[in-house]
Each structure stands twice: as C-alpha cells, then as structure tokens.
Amino acid sequence: MLLSVTKAKTTLIAGLTALSIAAVPATPALAWGDKEQGFVAGVATAVIVDELLKNNRKARLYDRGYTAGPTYVEPRPVYSEPVRTSSIYATPAARAFQSYSLSERKAIQRNLRAYGYYRGGIDGSFGPGTYNAVAAYARDEGQSIRSNAAAYGVYDGLLY
User: Fold this and answer.
1) Which residues neighbour 138 within 8 Å (Cβ) at sequence distance 6 or greater?
2) Residue 152 phi, psi dihedral angles, 5° rounding
3) How far apart are CA 96 and CA 88, in angstroms?
4) 153: how many CB neighbours lie within 10 A of its CB?
5) Residue 91 near residue 85, CB atoms below 8 Å
6) Percent helix, strand and coil across the chain, each rounded to 5?
C-alpha cells in the first residue's frame, strides 16, 4: 500500500509540474497590452519604410545609369619572357661561388688547379677562368651548373 501511495503522489507531482510548465508560456501573453502592441507595430512599420526607401534610391540610381555596385572584370594573364643572362657574373655558378668565404673560394680554385682545370691566379674572385674551369669540371663529372643547387653541389664536391 505504501508503494501505491508513493506512486500516486509522484504521479500527482509530475502532473502539476507539467500543468505549470504548460501555463508559463501563456503568462507573458496576458501582459501584452495595447501600448506594447503599438510599440511593436511602430518598429515594424519603421523597418518596412526604411527598406522601401532604400529600394527606391537604388532604382533611381539605376535609372540614371549608375550601377549599384562594383562590376567584376576578369583579370588578363600576364606572361613574361624568361630572363636570359649574357654575363657570367649573373649565372647561378657565380652567385653560388660568391656565397662562400674567401678561404673557401681559394680552396675551390686550388682544387680546380690540382685537377688541371684552372690556370689563373688563386685570388678567390670569380671570373671567366674560374667559370670555364668549373663548367669543364662539372661537365666531366656529369653534373650541371645551371641552377643554384647544382652549382652548390659542384662546389661542395670540390671542397669536401
């Protein structure tokens, strides 16, 4: 019997809770008077009139030949010719050579002379003699000096 009373009591509390939850959303509607309704109607009217005025301004600008916004123009591709260097001082081999220290540049020239490719003075400066020696050495080793990475590889091979 105690179990049925507890169950009835729980059911009654659940029912009252559900009834109070259902009644709460309706309560603010009772506080909705004429002044509140007039305020909301005024705000809605202001928003609608503002949108109508904006559309009217856009229509007048369009009639005068003005556009309403920016127009998209497809960009034209830009093609550039590759830069051809006629000077040995602008080659990747020269740029890579100049990045080494003076003692390393002299060591590169010394090793090129020891292998029989270089006949100039060991001064650490890049010139036609150094360029021709490096190009001949790279060609004989099956390498290239057309890129910075390849030139660094040739020079590192001569140093280490």
Assistant:
1) 144, 145, 150, 154
2) -60, -40
3) 12
4) 17
5) yes
6) 65, 0, 35
pTM above 0.70, yes or no: no
- In sequence order, the 6+-apart residues with CB closer than 8 A to the CB of 118 are 109, 112, 129, 130, 133
Every domain of the chain and the residues it spans: 1-29, 32-67, 88-159
Q: How many CA atoms lie within 13 A of 19 on its CB side?
A: 6
- Residue where the block lists tokens 């609608």: 48
Which 8-state DSSP code applies to residue 99?
T
At 46-89, the pLDDT tens digits run 778 788 788 777 777 666 665 556 677 888 888 777 766 578 88
In the numeric block, the tokens 């002044």 are attached to 35
For 115, the token pair is: 């292998």
Residue 125 in contact with residue 89, Cβ under 8 Å? Answer: no
**Within a 10 A sphere around the Cβ of 38, how many other Cβ atoms?**
10
